[in-house]
Amino acid sequence: MLIANQGITVQKYGGSSLSSPEKICRVARKIAGLRSTGRPVVVVVSATGNTTSELVGRAKRVSSTPSRRELDMLLSSGERVSMALLAMAIQEEGREAISLTGPQSGIVTDSTHANATIREVRPDRVLRELDAGRVVIVAGYQGASPEGEVTTLGRGGSDTTAVALAGALEAEVCEIYSDVDGVYTADPRNVENVRHLSRVDSAVMTEYARRGAGVLHAPCLDLARREGIAVRAGATFGGDARTWISCGAELEYTGLDEGGSPRIAGVASRGRCIRVHATRGGARSRGAIVEALRRHNVVPESLRPDDDRVDVLIGTEEAPDAEGLLADIRRRLDGVAVVSDSLASVSVVASKHGDRDELADRVDDVLRRVGADTFSRHDRPLSITRSVAAEQRLPAILALHEALVESHAAVLAAR
Ligand code: ADP
Ligand code: ASP
Ligand code: MG
User: Which residues hold their Cβ within 5 A of ligand 3, which is an ion?
Assistant: First the structure.
């Protein structure tokens, strides 16, 4: 009889946690320790270190426009190396373990190479292996289309594999481990005085990830919300700090001061964006832009059906082939839209509560003060985004964080 689904632990380890044989062995010891408590364990892994980027580089050395299908075949191999090495290391610890590719684990996606969406998870094989007492190691970031073609889920996609499996295995929590002990008010690599967030609402976190907080893959948060799974983000090695991401979780941090301002989750940024800006309004230019982007599997989320004005900003990380997209839309949209690719975006992501217009004014004030010219404005219910010149990105992040997060912390402390 198959084991009861309740009580299955689903963990995901990112590439930086597996970047050397020593780290793989440390992760294996951690998993073997957990397994010794009797809990069934499923572990999703990413490619080691920078493997995925190196594989993209290798493809570009043999072809300037690599076929998306072959690129998926190539890139999916990175996670397969990790899964086999981790399974061996766990076996070395005296525990039974088996590695499975995405398709073997029953991850069924649509047919969109390089940016596929998980449609279904058929966990029978995983459950059989758990039932046989094995730790199951799953290659993240990949699946197979209904036609049996290997697909990948977009950069950072292993997080989404983990949440999808947690959903299919009816786990209540999905544990995501990386080199950072949770979510902060900005990327700790850019900003010194970041504040740790111990809980974040999943809709707010989805927005934070979409606007560039690279700590989690945005689609995994959408999925977690739909499946009612809490995501716990923490560091692989050391440190007990964690961030819980779940539906309805209130930020314990109050963000801006009184007066009904929204609570700030943080400042996010995307280093390189493509801006497509219609030179004339109307349904025809709008249709041409949407069609050109869709050909590249990019969904222009900032377009609203009733909005005649077309001005979209796409992070190059969201586009499976940013250079191809750029060349193609420049050609197709000549005379319809201005296409620029030298911009960065900075965003302030906030909770649902409070006055968003007031927050937008504050963001504009800060950017003006720091001398960062704003090229376009893209406001959404949970975020205020401005495109700025690439060289203004870091000063803008620092100034926004200082004004909207750090100075408020000082106000709180003084009370
Ligand atoms: P993994 O390879 O384990 O998936 P990632 O590199 O994708 O890990 O994510 C962890 C990184 O996310 C951290 O090293 C950190 O620099 C970055 N990061 C960006 N924004 C944030 C944020 N707001 N909070 C925490 N980490 C962030
Ligand atoms: N290895 C893939 C990447 O680097 C997927 C992941 O890390 O989640 O994007
Ligand atoms: Mg990641």
Answer: 14, 156
- Closest ligand 1 atom to residue 236 Cα is 3
Q: What tens digit of pLDDT does each residue of 196-253 get?
A: 999 999 999 999 999 999 999 999 999 999 999 999 999 999 788 999 999 988 776 6
* The pLDDT value given to residue 133: 97
Do residues 366 and 403 make contact, with C-beta atoms less than 8 angstroms apart? yes
Nearest residue (by CA) to ligand 2, atom 4, is 52
User: Whole-angstrom Cα distance, residue 55 to residue 81?
Assistant: 13
Q: CA-to-CA distance for 10 and 170, rounded, in angstroms? A: 10
Give all domains of the chain, ordered by start, each with its CATH number.
9-253 (3.40.1160.10), 264-414 (3.30.2130.10)
- The amino acid at 84: A
Ligand number, closest to the Cα atom of 18: 1
Residue type, 355: D
Helix (H, G, I), strand (E, B) or coil at 368: helix
42, 72, 171, 378 from 11: Cα distances, Å? 6, 24, 10, 35
Q: Is 218 in the pocket of ligand 1 (CB under 6 A)?
A: no
Residues 6+ apart with CB under 8 A from 362: 256, 403, 404
